[in-house]
Automatic annotation (TrEMBL):
Residues 68-174, 217-345 form the EamA domain. Keywords: Membrane, Transmembrane, Transmembrane helix. Pfam families: EamA. The chain crosses the membrane at residues 25-47, 67-90, 102-123, 129-149, 216-236, 248-267, 279-299, 311-328, 334-351. PANTHER family: ACYL-MALONYL CONDENSING ENZYME-RELATED (PTHR22911), SOLUTE CARRIER FAMILY 35 MEMBER G1 (PTHR22911:SF6). This is EamA domain-containing protein. It comes from Tilletiopsis washingtonensis. It is a multi-pass membrane protein. GO terms for cellular component: membrane.
Amino acid sequence: MDPGGTQITMREAMVSSSELPGSNLGLVLIAVSQVCYSCMNLVVVLLDEREGKNAPGKGPGGEPAMGALQIVAAECFVIWLACTALMLYARTEHIIMGPPGVRGVLLARGICGWLSTLLLYVSLEMLPIAEMTSISFLAPLVTGVLAAITIGEPFTLREKIAGVSSLFGVTLIARPAFLFGRGEESDVPSAPGDTPPIDGIPELPLPDVGGLDEHSLGVIIALVAVLFIAGAWVSLRAIGHRASTYHSIAYFSGVSWVASLLTMAALREPLVVPQSPLSIFLLSGIGLFSLCAQVFQTLGLQREKAGRAAVMSYLQILFATFFQVVLLGTPLEALSILGSVLILANGAWVASAKANDDDAVAVH
């Protein structure tokens, strides 16, 4: 119950974009979106075990494997259809193009989301997944700074400290080889963004940059992906209430499934039709969890400034670690426990802050 006596329910969150002072509803919605992203990651792992390049009977000498681009295309097509249907049902205006005056920002959100996904896949060809994950989790800090510079949102001292501390927690969980050595590297199937990195990545043509080895180039590409992740989040904040939740999601999913299919055609990657009902069910589940994640993330960013919301995205790796231990049987290391506690504690610390805290100092 809020101070004014109005009960805050999830239904109110889904149908109203009004601010509820002191409720931290935006942070709750962001946290729920991270649960959905982690569930999506889990389903991707299960689908990859059945249809990916390392699945029985797939890959060289066997049937064509389902690649990452096809999964992204199928996932985003499901999301686009669902958003379009919901807007038709609600008789929303400007379903395809979006409201006038905000179409450019909507397009920027879609392009940033797609490019961040593509560049993360490219970086995975050159970096271990733990290193790519650690780099990609710079995104919450970059988001706070970018939001302060571009749309004037304050990035408080509390959010800076929590962001750096949470990034340290991510590093303890991922344990990248360049810090911990090859024997300590952890497999972390999670990263902030719109779609999950997976093992079945396509062999994309890589740029030839003189003087840079493959690892250094992979780090640079991952850092550029971080900028696009931050750009997608800041674009959502800039859109705000000028477009509906489903306009924002439809733009991202529409750009992504079209771009994915065009990239597949350019690379001559085959389109694999799942043969088993379970594979079809898992592919549909990816789209469903991704849709829910996108809805809750967009609703949360309509209510919460980018810096605070971005810090909560660190919870995704916490949920992913939980699923790995409980459902996939991955042993939990002591450093992973410490990292998880750090992330959870910092998320709670940020959520406990008031909007007008005295530590609200903007980044210049």
